[in-house]
Every structure is written in structure tokens, then in C-alpha cells.
């Protein structure tokens, strides 16, 4: 039966409210980044006043010898390298679980599914204690190595391998004399490209927004990602140093690379999520 007019109106109204609720933080950042320190507290928070956006951009650019630009570069490096390593490991592990029959496969897969349910914040302190014992804290590796291990990425890799790599094609390649490594590199990896890009994108966004792991692992501010750097500026604001305009403008700028990244890979994200949801 077709939905009634009332049901359509209610559904549309709820969707509009959800969109407004989702966009409200971004709108607040956009408005606040155009204000100076005085206007930030003396004008309405959700509408513009005098435009000081270029002044805020200049201030954030020159502060502490272009420190904010360094943080953006660190976030791009951590997210790019971490997501790439995690994607390769997840796709390879998921492919192995999907296409090879070995003893204990079900138990391993169950462990991976269970591990994917653990929140990352719960593991931050144990990871710090582990890396402190081997002397890797406050290094790039203390951030990158935990990012390489992603149980949920392995789960998605198995899902995509099950749905996109036919067993008959693998058997034909084996009959032709191809080794397992060559089959994975030349055939399976190409068939799993959409899934791999989806895993990479999810990892990239998750690493970019990660806060607790860098908070535990890193000490020097020049090694901070942008999330931790903005938090450090906010702590200075609470100590009496007026840096709220820098924090708000930096928060707005920090989502620009993510927005560009998401729009660039939008078609892969849509098709990849569709495959995973159907599976």
C-alpha cells in the first residue's frame, strides 16, 4: 500500500530535522570562524557579524612558525600511511579467511569479529604501556603500528572477498600453474578494488579523527595530528590565553581535507557499502 500523505509529511519533516541537526556544528564553525574574539562573545552564535575570516586565517598561518600547517601535514601522513597499511593487511587477511580452508578458521574469524566490537579508547592505555616497554613512545611508529591492525577492516575484507572473487576463477588460475601470491596480486586484488578503497576510506577517516591514541603516545607538539593540536590550543584558552578564534577556525579548516577526500571517493564508497550491506 502507498504511504498516506500524513506519513509522507511526517517522514519528510523528520528527515529535514535530521539534516539540520547534522549540519548545525559545521554551520557554527563557519559562522564562528568569521568573527574576532570580541564578536565571538557579543553577537548571536549562529549568524554572521563583521567578517574577520582572512585575519583569522593569517593568525592561524603564522602562529608558532606555521605550526597548524605542520599538524595538518602530520594528520595526512598518519591517516594516509596508516590507512594504506591497514587496507593491505585487512584485504590480505580477509582474502585468506574467505578462500582458504584451514583448521581454526572459524575461531579466528570469531575472534576478529569480537575484537572489532572493542572501542579504540579502551585499548589506548594498554597500547601505551606496551610501547613504553619497547621504547617506541613519542615516535611515528607508536601511532602507525596500532593503525595497521584493524579487525573490522579484516571482517570487511572477508565480506568483499566472498562476494567478488569467484572460487572457480581461482581454481582455473591454479590449474594454469599460477602461485597463490600471483593469484592474489594479479586477480583477487584487482577484483577487490572497490572493497579495498572502501576500507581505505573508512580507515583514513577513523585515523584522522582519532584522538586518544596520539594523546597517549605523543609528547612533542610538532608531532601532533590536528585533532590533538587543536585540543592543546583549547587547553591554552582555558588557561587564560585567548585562542578560541584559532581553535574554531582550525576546526573548520581541519574538515576541509576530509570533505575533499570523501567527495573524491564518493562513487567507490557508495558501491562498496552497498556490497557490504547486501552481504
Describe this structure in a few short sentences.
The chain is mostly helical. The chain has helices at residues 5-32, 37-42, 53-62, 67-99, 105-116, 120-133, 140-148, 151-164, 167-175, 180-191, 193-209, 212-217, 226-238, 244-254, 256-264, 266-278.
The SS-based structural class is mainly alpha
Mean pLDDT: 88
Task: Round the Cα radius of gyration to an integer and report it.
Answer: 23 Å
Question: Strand fraction band?
Answer: under 5%
Architecture per CATH nomenclature, i.e. the level-2 architecture = Orthogonal Bundle
| Gross morphology | globular
The rounded distance between the terminal residues' Cα atoms is 28 Å
**Largest sheet features:** none
Write up what this structure looks like.
This protein has a single domain, classed as MetI-like fold (Orthogonal Bundle). Helix 4 (67-99) packs parallel to helix 7 (140-148). It has helices at residues 5-32, 37-42, 53-62, 67-99, 105-116, 120-133, 140-148, 151-164, 167-175, 180-191, 193-209, 212-217, 226-238, 244-254, 256-264, 266-278. Helix content is 77%, strand content 0%. The protein contains 16 helices and no strands. It has 279 residues and is mostly helical.
Amino acid at each position: 500500500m502507498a504511504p498516506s500523505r500524513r506519513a509522507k509529511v511526517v517522514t519528510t519533516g523528520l528527515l529535514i530535522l535530521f539534516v539540520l541537526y547534522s549540519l548545525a556544528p559545521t554551520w557554527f564553525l563557519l559562522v564562528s570562524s568569521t568573527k574576532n574574539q570580541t564578536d565571538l562573545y557579543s553577537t548571536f552564535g549562529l549568524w554572521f557579524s563583521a567578517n574577520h575570516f582572512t585575519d583569522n586565517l593569517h593568525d592561524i598561518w603564522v602562529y608558532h612558525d606555521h605550526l597548524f600547517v605542520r599538524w595538518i601535514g602530520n594528520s595526512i601522513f598518519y591517516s594516509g600511511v596508516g590507512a594504506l597499511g591497514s587496507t593491505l593487511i585487512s584485504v590480505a587477511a580477509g582474502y585468506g579467511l574467505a578462500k582458504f580452508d584451514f583448521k581454526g578458521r572459524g575461531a579466528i574469524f570469531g575472534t576478529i569479529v569480537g575484537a572489532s566490537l572493542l572501542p579504540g579508547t579502551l585499548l589506548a592505555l594498554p597500547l601505551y604501556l606496551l610501547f613504553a616497554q619497547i621504547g617506541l613512545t613519542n615516535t611515528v611508529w607508536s601511532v602507525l603500528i596500532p593503525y595497521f591492525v584493524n579487525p573490522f577492516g579484516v571482517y570487511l575484507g572477508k565480506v568483499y572477498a566472498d562476494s567478488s572473487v569467484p572460487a572457480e576463477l581461482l581454481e582455473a588460475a591454479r590449474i594454469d600453474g599460477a602461485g597463490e601470491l600471483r593469484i592474489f596480486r594479479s586477480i583477487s586484488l584487482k577484483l577487490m578494488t572497490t572493497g579495498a578503497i572502501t576500507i581505505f576510506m573508512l580507515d583514513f577517516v577513523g585515523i584522522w579523527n582519532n584522538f586518544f591514541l596520539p594523546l597517549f603516545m605523543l609528547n612533542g607538539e610538532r608531532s601532533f595530528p590536528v585533532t590533538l593540536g587543536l585540543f592543546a590550543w583549547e587547553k591554552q584558552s582555558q588557561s587564560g590565553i585567548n585562542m578560541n578564534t584559532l581553535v574554531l577556525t582550525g576546526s573548520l579548516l581541519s574538515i576541509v581535507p576530509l570533505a575533499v577526500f570523501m567527495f573524491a571517493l564518493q562513487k567507490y564508497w557508495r558501491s562498496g557499502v552497498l556490497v557490504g550491506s547486501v552481504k
